[in-house]
Amino acid sequence: MARQPRHVRPRPLLQALIATGALVTGLLAAGGTSQAATQGPCDIYAAGGTPCVAAHSTTRALYGAYTGPLYQVRRASDSATRDIAPLAAGGVANAAAQDSFCAGTTCLITVIYDQSGRNNRLTQAPPGGFQGPAAGGYDNLANATAAPISVGGHKAYGVYIAPGTGYRNNNTNGVATGDQPEGMYAIFDGTHYNGGCCFDYGNAERNSRDNGNGTMEAIYFGNIKVWGYGAGNGPWIMADLENGLFSGVNQHYNANDPSISHRFLTAIVKGGPNRWAIRGGNAQSGGVSTFYDGVRPNVAGYNPMKKEGAIILGIGGDNSVGARGTFYEGVMTSGYPSDATENAVQANITAAGYATSSAGTGLTPGTAVSLRATTACCTDRYIHHTGSTVDTAVIGSGSSATEKGNGSWTVRTGLGSSSCVSFESKNVAGQYLRHQNYRLYLQANDGSSLFAQDATFCPEAGRNGQGASLRSLNFPDRYVRHYDNILYIAANGGSNTFDNANAYSDDVSWLVSAPWAS
Ligand code: AHR
């Protein structure tokens, strides 16, 4: 049984701090660890007179005093469930509790609780205009370990939305309806998106159907161009207002909405009577910029709005389930937040310390390693090369010296980025792992910028909770994967055979072990 969430009330002192800007400075000075934070984003919204009416996060508490459950996981082995709470009041999620509960099996995220005290929790989205792929037309639930990161130095998990996945609440309390004003922000993985409809977080129809222009108001993130788009090739933050993703006042193109793809992305949409705005920025540093702030779109049906007040995550208003993305935290407010309030929230976000979790993976430049598969089929197999072909092979103490060398790698500072790594063959000096048409090869470094990019991988905590996963530098939606014992960079659930979602998290997780050849 979930503990009762606490609803934190506005504090006069906090209001004064927002007004003077002192809050932002103080939070930034405090920086580094959200464990020490005394205020969360929803304390800041409340102080600004626009309190949260929904507060969702699998990574951290969004009120300084919140100690209740953040989310619930269900494990496959016996269908038991477990609530995951913050490590301390206002702190980061207790990912270790999830790891221990899900050890030896798999877990799905079943509930994302509402920290606002209004019980606007998100659960498995039901069928609507479109059917989901799960039983009864429901959408799929997210794999609980598919989006590991760290926040303030503590491990946490995001909500990984593969196409077909979606969460919803059609029976909410306190969320804006009609033309009432509201605000919302979310933190997404800005490198994980697609051109499907529609990776949204926010206000939608209560019957999961397309009820016409203006019946929803949600943050959209991705690069679909069917309804609207901004500068460059995307992805863009847009507002999903139903039958239209809007990047500004015009129906299709608005030059001021930039392509934006920070690894941790703050995305903001707010709307009230004939005024709305899009804002965004880097959730790891700096402020948020305004990409649109003005009147409702110059298309019939969006002024006044006819918002219905349901809440969606990862899907369109009519339960379109074609999109992908990753969600870490987000809130919806009552009232139209001021830019100053949102700027203070952004300062709180950057101080929380969102980061990818390469620390502890053991991939230190200058050392030699062997990389062992973690998929149950293949735990005696290592990343190995046969000439220029990169595959996995069984290597053991009885293997030949050549085979041991073919399965050993010197970790080098990334040829294309000093914050990532490259892998040089232990027995063919000057030859590195690189991808070409998504397949891995061993090739000599030709000194080109393309080779450097293709040969660079950014280590993260293993996506199945074991070892390390290796994210491609120039295709950040893809990780090094074995499939039929051949190595690729694969996107979970993508269009190639080797992108198959089945066993993906295991296939992209590698145990870093002592090298067979030193
Ligand atoms: O507005 C874009 C999409 O159009 C909505 O999310 C969906 O309900 C409809 O298909």
TrEMBL record:
| Highest taxon listed in the record's lineage | Bacteria
Indicate the segments forming the Alpha-L-arabinofuranosidase B catalytic domain, all copies.
41-355
Query: Glycoprotein as a keyword?
Result: yes
| Endpoints of the signal sequence | 1-36
Annotated Alpha-L-arabinofuranosidase B arabinose-binding domain residues: 371-512
**Keywords of the record:** Glycoprotein, Glycosidase, Hydrolase, Signal
Q: Which InterPro entries match?
A: A-L-arabinofuranosidase_B_cat, ABFB, AbfB_ABD, AbfB_ABD_sf, ConA-like_dom_sf
Similarity comment: family membership = Belongs to the glycosyl hydrolase 54 family.
Its protein name is: Alpha-N-arabinofuranosidase
> What species is given as this protein's source?
Amycolatopsis bullii
What is the phylogenetic placement of the source species in the record?
A: Bacteria, Bacillati, Actinomycetota, Actinomycetes, Pseudonocardiales
